[in-house]
């Protein structure tokens, strides 16, 4: 596989992960189990939403609107530079100045691959943390609504 194919596959995987997480992060549906009116349900919903936000420290609106981790060629931890330097050193030892140039070029490519892998891992970690926060919030919300006589799905 070439680098472009790997990058497309990784982008598709991250997109699918985000779509799956978005599907799981939806607000539970509360069904009135004790004949609550629509007005009462709206009031209970609002109060449980506030209670869950206060008790978990999670605001679903803020989590959903959190900026995505930065990406692009300028972002990274210096993997390309470290790869170039390492490649130049090894290439220089093995084959002098021509080897240093070749090693540096190979090191830049390898560093770029590492940078993309690290960026994907950071995005997956951020998504996992976001999902965990929303799950915590919605469990608290659901518990509050169940305590007020609703069936939660």
Shape: rod-shaped
Mean pLDDT over the residues = 75
Count of the domains: 1
Percent helix: over 70%
Largest sheet report: 2 strands, antiparallel
Q: Can you write the helix and strand succession as a string?
A: HEHHHE
Radius of gyration: 25 Å
Number of strands: 2
Distance between the termini: 44 Å
User: How big a fraction of the residues is strand?
Assistant: under 5%
Structural class by SSE content:
mainly alpha
Contiguous helical run count: 4
Strand order of the largest sheet: 1-2
Question: Can you describe this structure?
Answer:
The chain has 4 helices and 2 strands; from the N terminus they run αβαααβ. It is mainly α and 153 residues long. The protein has one domain (3-152). Helix 1 (3-24) runs parallel beside helix 4 and helix 2 (38-56) crosses helix 4.
């Amino acid at each position: 596989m070439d680098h472009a194919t790997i990058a497309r596959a990784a982008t598709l995987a991250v997109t699918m992960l985000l779509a799956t997480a978005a599907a799981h992060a939806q607000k539970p549906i509360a069904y009135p189990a004790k004949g609550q009116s629509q007005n009462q349900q709206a009031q209970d919903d609002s109060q449980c939403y506030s209670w869950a936000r206060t008790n978990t420290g999670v605001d679903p609106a803020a989590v959903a609107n959190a900026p995505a981790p930065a990406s692009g060629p300028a972002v990274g931890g210096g993997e390309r530079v470290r790869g170039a330097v390492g490649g130049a050193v090894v290439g220089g030892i093995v084959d002098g100045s021509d080897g240093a140039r070749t090693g540096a070029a190979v090191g830049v490519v390898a560093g770029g691959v590492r940078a993309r892998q690290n960026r994907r891992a950071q995005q997956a970690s951020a998504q996992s943390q976001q999902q965990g926060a929303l799950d915590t919030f919605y469990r608290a919300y659901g518990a509050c609504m169940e305590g007020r006589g609703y069936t939660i799905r």
